[in-house]
């Protein structure tokens, strides 16, 4: 039995042992090494991932070949190309590992079956989707209206403890500033 | 009985007449005139709004006093400061009417009670939250990596039929370009 998975879900809903037995049977534990991809661009997105250990990023490459980082994620966060997953379309984003990673994955059809078999999971995923929305809204406001210094402060607040685990080049890419500008913000 | 509300919900879930009776009792119909605010900045956000008629925008004012438009919304869309609503914090955004508007509103506590009384509504709101996430992810990708011309094309795709109902000044603000740049994109 995965204590991590149970505790993660129980932060939001209370589960009986029977419910958790069912829930657990829908998740698959997977391990990835640093630099491995969980999702590559332009592919069908089958799964979403709950991170037990590791640090990952979701990013996209523009037409000039430049990488833009949408989000970082670590233990207790979910990551995927959620837009592609929800719409069951091919991915715009790539998701890869900044450190060795362990995740629990659940497939699209399984998520819907799980929600009908264990109704509290519908509530759990509604709340999680709302939290995801909140993080994106904050990211947009930060991108549209804040200075590089304020965006860096938002990053520190949004990702406490991440700073020393993420190469500076990637933090600069997340903030949309050059490596030189970032070094002035530290 | 509101056919609009029932049809809107039934795009995602099937409802019995009894279920819809309960659902309807949780919503309040409200009317606003052009330029009226549904949400003002720095206030507690009690409600989310389903638009029956009208066009609205959500926007925020940066420290220099400049307005940035996050989203437009019309019939069959939901609008609020969702981040503030979900976290029950005060709003960063303002929501106001570009045209005379009719909405159905539901309050935070009522939404949670409704979801426990009529469980299909938990599914309905999970799907809606996922769609909201998708729209924001597309908005971020557009903002971070696309040219003004591509952002304008995204706007046309995202908001079919809106172009002729929204003052050009507001479209320019949504795209993050000047009024002059916008006129070259038309």
TrEMBL record, chains A, B:
Provide any one GO MF term from the record: kinase activity
Q: Would you say which domain of life the source belongs to?
A: Bacteria
Q: What keywords were assigned to this record?
A: Kinase, Transferase
- Keyword Ribonucleoprotein (UniProt): no
Instruction: Cite the Cyclic nucleotide-binding domain residue spans from the record.
Output: 30-116
Q: Which named protein is this?
A: Crp/Fnr family transcriptional regulator
Please give the organism.
Chryseobacterium contaminans
């Amino acid at each position: 039995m995965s204590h991590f998975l149970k505790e993660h879900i129980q932060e939001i809903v209370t589960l009986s042992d029977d419910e958790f037995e069912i829930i657990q049977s829908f998740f698959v534990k997977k391990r990835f090494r640093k630099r491995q991809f969980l999702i590559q661009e332009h592919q069908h997105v089958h799964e979403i991932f709950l991170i037990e250990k590791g640090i990952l990023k979701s990013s996209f490459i523009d037409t000039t070949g430049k990488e833009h980082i949408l989000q970082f994620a670590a233990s207790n966060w979910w990551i995927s190309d959620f837009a592609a997953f929800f719409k069951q379309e091919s991915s715009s984003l790539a998701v890869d590992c900044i450190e060795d990673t362990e995740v629990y994955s659940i497939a699209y059809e399984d998520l819907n079956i799980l929600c009908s078999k264990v109704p509290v999971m519908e509530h759990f995923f509604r709340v999680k989707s709302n939290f995801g929305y909140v993080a994106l809204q904050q990211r947009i406001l930060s991108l549209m209206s804040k200075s590089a210094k304020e965006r860096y402060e938002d990053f520190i607040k949004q990702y406490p403890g991440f700073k020393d685990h993420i190469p500076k080049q990637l933090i600069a890419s997340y903030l949309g500033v050059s490596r030189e500008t970032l070094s002035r913000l530290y």
